[in-house]
């Protein structure tokens, strides 16, 4: 799998993170995302295409990676922190009207805030210092989505509807 939440380098980062888990679900999600964006911010973004993704230990040793490598690391960190596989995905997409070779990898993590405009937070490895609230239907309308995936699930879903169904609250 490209997303490796059980990799020793990921486990080590999670153990060092000290992210509060008792401040409420929304605060907890945002705290996790803040921690992940801090890790990404410590790495150099390489603007290069390619599907080769080094394992997390190699990526952290290099301190640099392309969007796919950094997105996979971010997803792995969130999964290792306990975010459910229905709530975090790497998305590979290109803006509508652009060639597939212009595709870019980002991470979408379900926000637990309940605000429909903040249904997901988008982490862009090219601009890793922040995560912005994202409505998944608007994201999919503006992008040509090729795939959503994590360490458990792979969805070919250009509309995002299956992603929304997967992320429905559980009883």
Brief write-up:
With 171 residues, the protein is α+β, with helices and mostly antiparallel strands. The chain has helices at residues 8-17, 25-41, 56-62, 67-80, 136-142, 161-166, and strands spanning 44-45, 64-65, 88-95, 104-110, 120-123, 131-134, 143-149, 154-155. The radius of gyration is 15 Å and the shape is globular.
Structural commentary:
The protein has six helices and eight strands; from the N terminus they run ααβαβαββββαββα. The chain is of the alpha+beta class. The strands form two sheets. The chain has a six-stranded antiparallel beta sheet with strand order 6-5-4-3-7-8, sandwiched between helices. Helix 1 crosses helix 4 and helix 2 runs antiparallel to helix 4 (67-80). It is globular and about 40 Å long.
């Amino acid at each position: 799998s490209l997303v490796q939440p059980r990799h020793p380098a990921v486990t080590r980062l999670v153990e060092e993170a000290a992210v509060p888990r008792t401040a409420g679900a929304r605060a907890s999600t945002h705290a996790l995302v803040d921690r992940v964006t801090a890790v990404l911010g410590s790495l150099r973004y390489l603007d290069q295409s390619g599907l080769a993704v080094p394992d997390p230990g190699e990526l952290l040793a290099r301190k640099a990676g392309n969007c796919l490598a950094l997105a996979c690391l971010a997803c792995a960190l969130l999964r290792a922190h306990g975010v459910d596989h229905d709530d975090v995905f790497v998305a590979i997409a290109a803006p509508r009207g652009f060639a597939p070779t212009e595709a870019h990898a980002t991470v979408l993590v379900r926000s637990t805030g309940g605000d429909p405009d903040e249904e997901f937070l988008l982490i862009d490895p090219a601009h890793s210092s922040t995560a912005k609230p994202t409505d998944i239907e608007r994201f999919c309308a503006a992008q040509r989505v090729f795939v959503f995936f994590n360490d458990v699930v792979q969805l070919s879903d250009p509309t995002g509807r299956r992603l929304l169904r997967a992320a429905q609250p559980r009883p």
